Structure formats: structure tokens, C-alpha cells
Amino acid sequence: MGSVQPLTTAANGATGVGENRNGRILRVGIIGCGEISQVAHIPNFNFLSHLFQITYLCDISQQALEHCAKKVQGAPPAVTVDPEQLCSSPEVDVVLIANANAYHVEHGLLALKHDKYCLIEKPVALCFRDVDALIEAEKTSKGRVFVGTMRRYATAFVDAVQEVGGMSKVQYSRVRDIIGPNATFVSQSGTFPRKFDDFSEADVQDRLKREEAIFEQALRHEFGVPVTPKSKRMLQLLGGLGTHDLSAMREIVGMPQRVAGAVLTFPGIFGVLFEYDGFPVTYECGINSVPQFDAHIEVYAAEKIVRVDYDTPYVKGLPIVMTVREKIGEDGFQERKIRKTYEDAYTLELFDFYDCVVNGKAPKTSASDAKNDIKLFQMILKAGADRYLGAPSS
Questions:
Q1: What is the bridge-based pairing of β-strands 52-58 and 26-31?
Q2: Residue 88 exposed, middle or buried by CB count within 10 Å (0-12, 13-18, 19+)
Q3: Is CB count within 10 Å lower at the N or C end of the chain?
Q4: Would 216 be classed as within a structural domain?
Q5: Phi-psi region at 134: left, alpha or beta (left = phi > 0; alpha = psi -120 to 50)
Q6: Which domain holds residue 76?
Q7: Could you tell me the pTM of the whole model?
């Protein structure tokens, strides 16, 4: 693929990409033209036109294809309803998979079959069988899986991981992600996304059938918990909103030893208590009607507290901030709020994706890494199964 200017650190501390000296632009095929592609992915690929060009779109909705094709900067992209056609195209170097969760693995396997790197929106999978299929397919492919847990690429989070790594001993950590209606943030994003319904009942039933098969595989066969409406909703929430939190938690404090308790009250807000080697971690997650975005990770040591605050990613340019509170001298106190960049996590994620594809760097948010999220889903659901998930469905 040739060499390119590597990722660099700007004078203000923001991570960015220098001049693309050999002109290598990755041609992108997007599978899924729904909300996240309209609000985040297509605009960001357009902004990064020195690195990416959208050349192909795929969706079951012709209206969505027509709408999104008009949003693409540069030459009009080809469009198709067939994912294989997109993945096999010589006009596509990398594939973004951002359609319904039930199709992520199947279309990831298609991309790998055709030796394409694929950025798969979270959750990459909800069961071990499916993530293992991707890991196995990578062994015979020139492509790799890059999972879209973008919060882990935020500069403030990367810095926080380093700060926590320098602590003598962690005493406690809190992970919180309690947000208001997502539609509130989407409607104020300035991207004016649209929803379409020109797809068949057969398409709807196929998705539902696939989802039910995944629930059966994950909940009944792998996790050993009842398959009920509550357990299915909880697995969906953990795979959606929860993946961001649990994946970042793993990176900053590692994997827990066990779940000491789980109050899986959903709809609403649920809580989990993780036990680590010598310290607890509380996890609070859920959705309510207050239009705010309360997401943070906070890690405590005896003489230092490190916190990362996230805002909604649907409004571009909102800063992600690290706050460090620490003891100074015998009785002193210091608080530092650090915002190195306004570059959003989606953009920073794409910089790293580009680096992985062009320079052969291994993705840190790989399929193998994401398998640990599924282990956490299993631990949480098993801990709350008896009291909160109900009796097995008939």
C-alpha cells in the first residue's frame, strides 16, 4: 500500500494526521445508511477527504441510499442492496459496517473474505460463537476487524489511562453512563438525518429471526440465563450503550474478578458492583427523560483521583475532559482540568483506523479484545438472572 506520513502529535497535544505525502486515500464502502452513518460517519469521512473517499453505499432502503449518496463529497458513490457486491468491489479498500447489529458478523465475514479491513460499529457481536467466527476468519484474510468503540480513542481517555497506570494502587473506580433521549442530541447535531421505511416485511422478519437466534445462542446456550423479554432487552442495552463503558473500563482498570452484585432494573437505570483484586468498581447505566449526557469514568488512588467526562458524540466538537485531583505536599490540594483537543472521538478513531490499514498497526479495539466485553455481559446477566430477568420463556 506504500508508506504515508505517520500519526503525529500536534503542538497543542492533539493527535492528528500530518500531510498525506504519497496521496494514499482509502476508498470506503459503507454498509448501513441509517442514523449513525448520517450523523457521524459520512460527515467525518467527508471532513477527512485527504485520507478517505466514500465510493460505495449499501442499504436495504433505496430511499436511504439516494439520501446518503447526496451527502457524499466528491464523485457520487455506487449504490447497492447487496453487501457482497460492495465487499468484492475493486473500488473499495475498507468497509464500514453500521447496519443492524444482527448483521455485523455476517458482513464482517464478507469483508474479511475479500481481504478488506472492516470498521464494525459496536457491538461487533453479542455471543462468543459469532466473535470467534470473526477471529478465525482473520487468520486467513489480509483484512482485520476494527471495532468502533470510539471513546477509547479520545485524547483525554488515552491520557487518563497513562495517569492511572502511574498510580501506586487503585482504591476504587466508578463508571457511569446515564443519558437522556438520544433523539434530543441527534436532532441538534446539525446533520438533519432522516429515517426511511421503504423495506419489505420479509426484511423485518429476517432481522427479527436473526436477533432471536442470537439471543438463544448467547443467553441460553452460552450464558446459561433465562431467555425472557427482560434478559433480551438487557443484553441489547449492554451491547449498545454498555459496550462503550465496559470496553473503556477494561482498558483503564482491567478485567474484574467477578460481579459481586447486579441490580438489573431496566427500563430505567441499572447498577453493577464489580470486584477487582483489592478494590471495587461500580457501574451505573441507563436511560431517562432528562436531556443530558452524564458519562464519566473516575479512578481513585490514595493521593490522586483521575476522571474523564464524556459529552454526546452526536454534536461534533464537544470537548472530552480529563480532571486530575491530587494531594500536594502535607496538606495541599491541586485540581487540573485538561482539554488538549476539541477533536472528537469519532475523528480520532478514524485516524487510528487509517494508521492500522495503511501502516499495518494492530487495532487495539480488535475482535479478540471485544470478546472480553461478551465475557462481561455474561458475568452481569448471570449475576442478575434470578432476581431481575424472570422465568424462562416458553
A1: parallel
A2: middle
A3: C
A4: yes
A5: alpha
A6: 7-151+348-367
A7: 0.93
